[in-house]
Design goal:
The complex is a heterodimer of chains A (about 400) and B (about 325).
Chain A lengths: L3 E11 L2 H13 L13 E12 L4 E5 L6 H9 L6 E6 L2 E2 L10 E4 L11 H11 L4 H15 L14 H13 L5 E5 L7 H18 L2 E6 L2 H7 L2 E6 L2 E6 L1 H6 L4 H6 L6 E10 L2 E6 L2 E4 L2 H9 L5 E7 L4 E4 L3 E10 L3 E8 L2 E8 L12 E6 L5 E4 L10
Parallel strand pairs in A: 3-8, 3-9, 6-7, 7-8
Antiparallel strand pairs in A: 1-2, 1-4, 4-5, 9-10, 11-12, 11-14, 12-13, 14-20, 15-19, 16-17, 16-19, 17-18
Helix pairs in contact in A: 3-4, 3-5, 4-5
Chain B lengths: L2 H13 L1 E4 L2 E4 H32 L17 H7 L2 H33 L5 H13 L2 H11 L6 H8 L14 H27 L2 H10 L3 H12 L1 H16 L3 H6 L12 H11 L3 H27 L7
Antiparallel strand pairs in B: 1-2
Helix pairs in contact in B: 3-14, 4-8, 4-11, 4-13, 5-8, 9-10, 11-14, 13-14
Classes of the chains: A alpha+beta (about 400), B mainly alpha (about 325).
């Protein structure tokens, strides 16, 4: 149980000797074209300007696509990666140079990392034995953790004799048995199948209520992030894109990347016109003019946003089939049970419209023409130049 | 009516099939398979199976290469060997050498592999340096080491002299000859085991090391509690091959101390077999001795595999 503070954390992987040599050769031949901005003269930049205050007992989820720096950040907190620049504090103590074993943290790995030559009991007891905890106390704590995770029957088995789900429970058990200040989880559910992943997600929510510690959880799965986190940190190319509660990042995405990353199916984007008439703001798409909600208008007016061409974002679940509105041609109709996902072409873009099956006829055919509309409360307005949400920029 | 033609059609199909070990095969397939197997099988029979049978048979005879006599003498060769001082001395030398070689070679190889597994400067150079002696021909390197060990002009005694220490007789004294060859064998062979251990260490996923570090393991505990147990399959292989190779050792001993060394101190069991067969011409006794060596190696390796079998580890 502890707070964690990361101040301007930076991670650069320096070039190896061979990289430097090849770079030198290239320099002589032709100037290197830096397509990827993360490659600098110092090396490959994995994490940049990462600042985050994590409160005691908070559940923070770092989420983003592969290579965004989320696992590197977690490993820096664990002490498994050196921090190139910036400061890390756990419970107010400066931790940059403290060895992993002295940080009082536990970590659950994606591939479980259970010692294959030890039984489940020995795996869970290993850290306590190293701390020279009394044998009876080890027995008590391991059995208690096993009880919580429902793995008591497997204590004498070797990891090889367990299923993926059971192994992940043991890995979690090994972490909680130490009663750590901070629990780190690096994509713990990624190796499990979809059904087991859902079950384990629910288990982690329950576990969190029972063990009451600070969690930092890394995932690339936005559903996990939304369901588990008190706050979510969305990352891309080593930079934080947005920090907020799940509801916050869903309702008020800070930029196009967040808008596209959070939410399933992904948000629809259109080229549209933002029109300001006094303190009123309208968005015009394909001849349809929709007035934005008053709170949105207020924020745009406050930032003195003027009429301009923008990127309009509307989530598929916030569109509605109507008699009038933006015209669309159906490309594919996916029957999902409770709803139909219509993949349509509208205003020159591929768009998804979700139609609840309870509300309307579900007899959609490829090539049919439909009309859809959306409300001013669910329209997200992004700058064409900066990709940022104009309400919050 | 309709069943008659189909039965007639089925009959020739059955003709082309042959039944072997409870399964049916196409005759053509079987013939082709035999053709492929025959060369290898013939090679095996003439170069391995027949000689082995011959050795077993000869061990019960008094076959002499010089006199060309051959009579069946039942177990007399075995009885002779068990009562022969030279046999026991060479066996004891072999056991002493093997025990020391196995222990030192395994421990040293493991130690060097652990060092090479770290991010040290010049890692590639050291790795090549340790492995280089393995690829040098045994006789060539033995001859070079004879010069190293020369009490008058060899560099080893010169170095000892510079350090103010008395020189050694190395290969020319019964107390030091066996250990001198052992030192050479370690230099010659350790690199091979270093590579085996190093590959084992590099095969251990980083996540085990990281998990152990987070669990609070020091470098020492990390090695003994996590890495070493995970190296068991390799350690087991190294020990088994070590037993086989050290009991069969011959070339370096024959080159460095051709007559069994001072007072027979470097005469090992294979040298003894060689002496029986080709110096004395007593092929029958040599075959009996070779079979006894085989039995000893077989028992030791079986024991080792029994001890090591339940300790094998599957790394995910």
């Amino acid at each position: 149980m502890a707070s964690v503070e990361l101040k301007n954390i930076k991670k650069i992987y320096p070039f190896s000797g061979e990289d430097k040599k090849s770079k030198k050769k290239n320099k002589d031949a032709a100037p290197e074209k830096k397509v990827n901005l993360q490659i600098t003269d110092e090396g490959v930049v994995a994490v940049q300007e990462f600042s985050l205050d994590i409160a005691d007992k908070e559940f923070i989820v770092l989420v983003g696509p592969s290579g965004c720096g989320k696992s590197t950040t977690l490993r820096m907190v664990a002490g498994l990666e050196e921090i190139t620049a910036g400061e890390l504090y756990i419970d107010g103590k400066f931790m940059n140079d403290v060895a992993p074993k002295d940080r009082d943290i536990a970590m659950v790995f994606q591939n479980y990392a259970l010692y294959p030559h030890m039984t489940v009991f020995e795996n869970m007891a290993f850290s306590l034995k190293l701390q020279k905890v009394d044998k009876k106390e080890i027995e008590r704590r391991v059995r208690e953790a096993a009880e919580i995770l429902d793995i008591t029957d497997y204590l004498e088995r070797k990891p090889k004799a367990l299923s993926g789900g059971q192994r992940q429970r043991v890995a979690i058990g090994r972490a909680i048995v130490r009663d750590p200040k901070v629990m780190l989880m690096d994509e713990p559910l990624s190796n499990l199948d979809a059904k087991l992943r859902n079950e384990m997600r629910a288990e982690i929510i329950k576990l969190r209520q029972r063990i009451n510690t600070t969690f930092i959880y890394v995932t690339h799965d936005q559903t996990e992030a939304m369901t588990l986190g008190d706050r979510i940190v969305i990352m891309k190319d080593g930079f934080i894109q947005q920090i907020g509660t799940p509801q916050d990042v869903f309702n008020h995405p800070a930029n196009l990347f967040v808008a596209g990353f959070i939410g399933m199916p992904v948000m629809n984007f259109f080229d549209a016109e933002l029109i300001r008439e006094g303190d009123k703001f309208f968005v015009e798409l394909d001849g349809e003019k929709v007035e934005l909600a008053p709170d949105k208008e207020e924020r745009l007016a406050k930032r003195n946003v003027q009429s301009q061409t923008v990127t309009l974002g509307v989530r598929p679940e916030h569109t509605a089939i109507a008699d009038k509105g933006i015209e669309a041609v159906i490309d594919v109709a996916e029957m999902m049970g409770s709803s139909v996902h219509l993949h349509v072409t509208a205003a020159g873009r591929d768009v998804i419209i979700i139609v609840p099956t309870a509300d309307a006829s579900v007899d959609y055919r490829i090539g049919d023409r439909v009309h859809f509309t959306f409300g001013g409360r669910v329209a997200h307005i992004f700058s064409k130049e900066t990709d940022r949400n104009l309400e919050f920029d | 009516m309709s069943s008659v033609p189909s039965a007639q059609k089925a009959a020739p199909a059955k003709k082309n099939k042959i039944r072997l070990f409870g399964r049916e095969y196409q005759t053509n397939e079987v013939l082709v398979s035999i053709l492929f197997i025959v060369p290898t099988l013939a090679f095996m029979v003439f170069t391995f199976i027949l000689p082995v049978i011959d050795v077993v048979e000869l061990s019960f005879t008094n076959f002499n290469l010089k006199t060309r006599t051959l009579n069946y003498i039942k177990l007399d060769n075995y009885k002779y060997l068990l009562g022969e001082e030279d046999f026991w001395k060479s066996l004891l030398n072999t056991v002493k050498y093997s025990a020391m070689k196995l222990t030192l070679d395994t421990a040293l190889a493991l130690f060097l592999a652990v060092l090479l597994d770290k991010n040290i400067k010049g890692k590639k150079f050291f790795r090549s340096s340790f492995f280089a002696p393995v690829v040098v021909p045994m006789v060539a390197s033995s001859l070079i080491w004879i010069w190293f060990y020369d009490p008058n002009v060899g560099p080893f005694n010169q170095i000892l002299g510079w350090l103010g220490l008395p020189g050694s007789q190395w290969l020319y004294h019964e107390s030091s000859a066996l250990w001198s060859i052992l030192l050479f064998s370690l230099w010659k062979g350790v690199g091979y085991n270093v590579i085996l251990f190093l590959s084992g260490l590099q095969n251990i996923p980083d996540s085990y090391t990281e998990a152990a570090k987070l669990d609070g393991a020091s470098e020492w505990k990390l090695f003994w509690k996590v890495k070493f147990p995970l190296l068991r399959p390799i350690t087991s292989f190294v020990i088994m091959m070590g037993i086989i190779n050290s009991f069969k050792v011959f070339a370096e001993f024959n080159v460095m101390t051709p007559d069994g060394g001072p007072l027979g101190s470097t005469k090992l069991i294979v040298s003894y077999i060689y002496e029986l067969a080709f110096t004395n011409g007593r092929m029958g006794r040599a075959c009996a001795c070779a079979l006894m060596l085989f039995a000893l190696i077989f028992v030791l390796t079986q024991f080792q595999s029994l001890v090591g079998a339940h300790k094998t580890v599957d790394i995910d």
